[in-house]
Amino acid sequence: MPIVRVALDVPLSTLFDYSVAESVPVATGQRVVVPFGRRDMVGVVMGSVASTDIPPERIKPVKQVLRDSTPLSAEILGLLRFCSDYYRYPIGQTVLPALPARLRSGNPVAIKPVLSYRLSAGGAALDLGNFPKRKVVQRRILEKLAEQPCNLARIKALSATAGAQLKDLMAEGWVESFSLATPLTPNPSPACGRGEQIAQHAFDNAHTLTSEQQFAVDAVSHTSGYACFLLHGITGSGKTEVYVHLMHHVLQPCPEHGRRGGGQVLLLVPEINLTPQLENYFRSRFPDVNLVSLHSGLSEGERLHNWQQAQLGAAHIVLGTRLSVFAEMPGLALIIVDEEHDSSFKQQDGLRYSARDLAIIRASRRGVPIVLGSATPSLESYHNAQSGRYRMLKLTGRALAEARLPAVRCININQAVMHHGISENLLREIGQRIARREQSLMFINRRGYAPVLMCTACGWTSGCKHCAGKMVLHLKDQRLRCHHCGYQVRVPAACPGCGNADLYPVGSGTQRVESVLQDRFPEARILRVDRDSTRNRRAWQAMREQIHANEVDILVGTQMLAKGHDFPALTLVGVLNPDSALYSSDFRAPEKLFAQLVQVAGRAGRADKPGEVIIQTAFPDHPLFRALQTHDFEGWAASQLAERQMAGFPPFVYQAMLRAEGKQEKEVYRYLNDARAAGIALRQEVEILGVVPAAMPRRANHIRAQLLVQAKSRRVLQLFLREWQPFLDQYSTAKLRCSLDVDPLEF
Ligand code: ADP
Ligand code: ZN
Ligand code: ZN
Questions:
Q1: 585-604: average pLDDT
Q2: I need a labelling partner for 261 at 20 to 30 A (CA). Which of 56, 176, 472, 611 fits?
């Protein structure tokens, strides 16, 4: 009897063997229902074998083969296997969570055919010149379909009533639907994905490319096979325009196959908040192309539908956040990773994978080009581009001739008149913007009113009783709230230590900045944008509209505001308190700060109005701010890389972090020390550092500590981790939460 090896969503790093009847062929990649312990589970067949070590009487049969979905391809299974292996994470817990939730349940799912519409023979014979004049919408639909078949979205775009009118036309027998759900052949040649699609993709070709843009587009589109490109373009240099042209190239029918053409493009973006905006943008540029998005904000039904469209090859552009790197795309011909430096591509819990890195692996295994775009590339990618592993493509000028880079200037907070964290000079600049009806943005990376409440008499501070951190004062709802564990209490009327009624908020967060500005500019319309004020996504959408309608004078916000948004009336950006990142224990903190400040500065002066950035700092001569002032990413990156090389940090070494947390300090340290000893005993070419407390040594009553391992090469590190893993599994106990983080970004 044939045996299949099944991946199940359980925390064990093995596959499970089940038997199948000869008469029921089961394909690799198929979903099956199998008995596991006392229940039934859905699993994915990873392969089959002729025999196994398990005694035959102990092998249970597969209960059901779920044939309602197309089996996962060898390509995706291979990527998932790689991922599980590289990040040392159980295979079943890698494979199953990569699927839409509905495919993880045993309930049958229907494959919704993706329909397109065309004229029937009767419809084509109609004389549109004599078509009833009052049926304007029907006529427009018929005219459109006479040009080319269209999907529903395209027809609906013609008019609000087009959906209903289409039904009438179908009832008349003039229009017919047909299914696009013909599966594509796997692995078409990269230059020519194929699939039954509309003959010619309309493409809103709005701009003549600059010569740098053209060079980038040519370099990528003339590539056959795998190559990794780093598109390093300053903000506003037109990276998005390059993406649009590259997509156009991939979507175009290839001359050899006539009207068969159109590969698929995967566009990975860091932020779920940005997807609706980008989705609309790319839809407007490719009105005839079926574009789907994949992110956690979708309902289960939408997610399944979009995923299936990608799998069927019916969706030609897939725009998604990190999980979409695992989407099936049989015609995949190009991958683009926008804002490749963004740390949200790295999952910070469970399977700690980097979607950017996996995207590169996927592209290279498949033999298609990948483009990493950023204004501030990660030092890893930048180093790879300099050493020739990636190809560097540069956009050095802003695409719109009249748009200039913002002027950046520092204000020394030790020499300025300060009002609760905002300098008099900055306040004056804001006042001028209000008078000119321009917008200002105050950037501060801390929400709440003040990061800590303090007693002036005895020195008591608002520490969290469950964590090593302080509780943040949220004045609006009169609470002290811990941003690490969520614990909250009412603001005490008097000091819990000495009874003194005079408690004093130290430092500022968004709420305090908002209130200081409101006191100074009572007439101004101030909008605070942080996680507290944008709990639901509709709130954020409404805020964006307000900003665009210029109904806001001053924006106060956290990094949420730094990313990707285009606010044409914004001419002043104030950076209120960036200094803590300069001397952080995390060696990546300056890199992150630089990227963040470039991004937030890029919000100023996008249109015809020049922008200005004012940074309040105690270190106005710090090289980071100097580089920012001269827009010198190259110089900055070179100095950072030199420092990293001297200190022996990535990208010059490869790291893995073992973390543990638990209620008992002793157990946490015993585990890490045992793991360390076992690692040292393996005597490999890796450096195993000491066991140290985590940056937040106690969180939600759990003691947290960590152990760093590093090696000169990825291969050496991987070999070590493979041998080390059994010890880690052996030493961990139910009382501990342990995790291994390969290529960690957070320290
Ligand atoms: P980035 O993504 O690099 O920040 P965008 O692609 O958003 O830049 O481009 C910035 C602005 O320049 C946009 O308004 C875009 O429409 C415009 N733009 C891009 N390329 C060109 C071009 N070749 N000619 C004119 N305008 C362009
Ligand atoms: Zn006190
Ligand atoms: Zn806490």
A1: 91
A2: 176
